Amino acid sequence: MTIRLLFLICLCCSLSLTANIPRLQGVAVRGRLVCGNESLAGAKVKIVDIDTRPDIDDLLGENYTDSNGNFELNGSTRELSTIETVLKIYHDCDDGILPCQRKVVWHIPSSYHHDGIVKRYFDVGTVNMEIVFRGEERDCRH
Fold first, then answer.
1. Radius of gyration (Cα) for the chain, nearest Å?
2. Residue 25, SS3 per DSSP
């Protein structure tokens, strides 16, 4: 009887310990940005895990679009809870001489999350950044 009780206590303790171990989670994104009929080269793209306070947001990856406007990002982090990822794009398409850059933020569906090994990319396709997106902002510090 005492051996069973001791076994159950050990089992419960080990389960509670493993439940609090952060697990590796990530996301991969790719696409092509254009500005009208031209490739949008040099636009900054980031994938970020949005966290609530007191935890800070995690930058999973960042890069710039190439000369053809293409980008590909993959990144991961360790979190206890399920990550909530967004793609942030900073650009000057159709911007004139306004200061700072246009900032667009798109939610990435959780069905594209991975466990450290990319299973599939969230492919945004080709996007014309002349469009003014709902919630778009200007950002000088990114």
1. 21
2. strand
Q: What is d(CA 112, CA 103) in angstroms, rounded to the nearest whole number?
A: 23
Token reading at 49: 């895990």
Helix (H) or strand (E) holding 98: none
Query: Which tens digit of pLDDT belongs to each residue from 36-79?
Result: 999 999 999 999 999 876 678 889 999 999 999 999 999 999 98
Q: Which of 30, 37, 31 is nearest to 93 (CA)?
A: 37
Span 91-135, pLDDT tens digits: 999 988 888 999 999 999 999 999 999 999 999 999 999 999 999
- Decide: helix, strand or coil at residue 67: coil
If phi > 0 it is left, if psi is from -120 to 50 it is alpha, else beta; for residue 135 that is left
Where do the domains of the chain lie?
2-139
Identity at 23, one-letter amino acid code: R
CATH dotted code for 2-139: 2.60.40.3330
The Cα diameter of the chain in Å comes to: 79
pTM value? 0.83
